UniProtKB/TrEMBL annotation:
Domain ABC transporter: 1-226
GO terms, molecular function: ATP binding; ATP hydrolysis activity
SUPFAM superfamilies, per the entry: P-loop containing nucleoside triphosphate hydrolases
Keyword set, alphabetical order: ATP-binding, Nucleotide-binding, Transport
Pfam families: ABC_tran (PF00005)
UniProt key word Glycoprotein: no
Name recorded for this polypeptide: ABC transporter ATP-binding protein
UniProt cross-references to CDD domains, sorted A to Z: ABC_DR_subfamily_A
Superkingdom of source: Bacteria
Stored InterPro entries: AAA+_ATPase, ABC_transporter-like_ATP-bd, ABC_transporter-like_CS, ABC_Transporter_VariousFunc, P-loop_NTPase
Amino acid sequence: MSVDQLTKKYKDFTLDHISFQIPRGMIVGMIGENGAGKTTTLMSVFEMISPDSGQIRLFGKNWRENRKENLQKVGLVMDGLNQNPRLYCKDLENIYKRVYKNWDSRLFYQYLERFSLPLNKKIKSFSKGMLVKLNFALALSYHPELLILDEATSGLDPVMRDEILELLQEFVMDEDHSVLISSHITSDLDKIADYILFLHQGKLQFFRSMEEIENNYGVLHCRKDFLQVLSPEDYEAYMPEDFSCKVLIRNKQALLSRFQDLVMERATLEDFMLFSTKGVLPCQD
């Protein structure tokens, strides 16, 4: 999927010319503070809202012009109950197989067994974790090529989240499959994402590979006067503390070659969010 210059304006918020691509066989994590534009981006992709401008292409075809065909190839998993609560799993199977031409009943029941989901209980009796598993079983059983998750793992316990993350990694082992996952649980994305899409106040901060983030970025704890030694090109931002400061370094290998005694921590996705919202930018004078 490719998104080019996607824009949506509201009275108090603008999703501002967002562009990115989701490579085949990859997991792309979307991060950002509440209100950054993550859900607006996903809703625009699915035309749950109409963007003001921009183009979305799926598998090389214009999304809007081929919407019916494209929806057969995309699985959407959202948080919570998205079905009639009075239905049973069997009822959902009967509905989905009429909608999706590639619906696979055998695969659906395999997922129900794998997830220990009961056939004889209405879904209104399901726990939050069971509903998430049901949503995954439904989305995966019509053999989508792209899986999109919007906070689908929020509120789950760590064991269940790991089970879902393992499922996503299995999904992209077929290199024709891709995943776009929006989540505020950045530690999950640290584990499985190949690329990160970072939104802040409706703007795209960066779209980078995790390999680039791992190799180039780090967090330095240092005295405040050490900032005077650094050039603006050395770091993204810093956060003052009582007697020291934390610095998000953008080229850690170059800095370590100049100052061999520095101790630098790995930069997590949470670090990027914190430095973007609370950090002080370097002076460019």
